[in-house]
Amino acid sequence: MGTKPTYMQRMMKNHTAIIGLIITLSLVFVAILAPWIAPYDPVDAELPDRLSPPQLITCLTNLLGFQGGNHPRQTGGRVYLLGADEQGRDILSRLIYGSRTSLRVGVVAVSIALVAGLVLGTCSGYYGGRLDTIIMRAMDILLAFPAIVLAIAIMTIFEKPSINNAMIAIGIVNIPRYARVVRGAVLSTKQNEYVEAVKALGASNLRIIFKHVLPNCLAPIIVYSTLGVATAILEAAALSFLGLGSQPPTPDWGAMLADGREYLMEAWHVSTFPGIAIVVTVLGFNMLGDGLRDVMDPHLKY
Asked: Phi, psi at residue 182, to the nearest 5°?
């Protein structure tokens, strides 16, 4: 019999996971290096250049032999590869800095949901009984509301909309999903014979949970957390689109979509490029999550 492949070897054979990893790592590097790779200050406006078309598109159309394209207006030597928005701000720079906001929202919101979901799901699955009934019925009540509607309702509790409040709201909204995933994994793991053996030896419940149950529940939790980042980014973009997330002039992809909707006919690029950024980012995290699910599936043969 051959040696069982490691997770890394499985990962290298899974093209979906590799593509998703490349996209997510690229986003991380762009967010980290934003001050050095962004052409201009994302909040620096040049009103004479407002709604300038993307020079990158103009160059490509000229290269392909198409004539009649509008040339971007420039002031003081500024060049807009992806065009300028309604205030003359460079869209490429705002997209680059906006990646920081999206990543921060995804990581913080998922962390809030994961920590609370771990506690509730573990207590519910391990102890069972009346505690399980109370926790799960409370989670069912939260799941009965559409995520974005519940997030908007939670936002009304805060004094004013902000990206920090949006992260908290998105984290709370997603707690039931993580609690259910953790509960299912704990219920499956605690039935194993080694858990019963440790109980027979007199180990405390906390020792059993942290040393023998949770470590064996990590695979589904990691996969769901990766997919959850994509969901959190999408929900944060929706809140910003509605004016409940990042506030001007902070670069945010959802807010950029909202700002550009009034200029779709005359300046399609203002909304199109933020939309593409959201789609690519969510697709990358979804592909990474799907790939990790396949890699960590013990029944899948490689």
From this structure: -65, -40
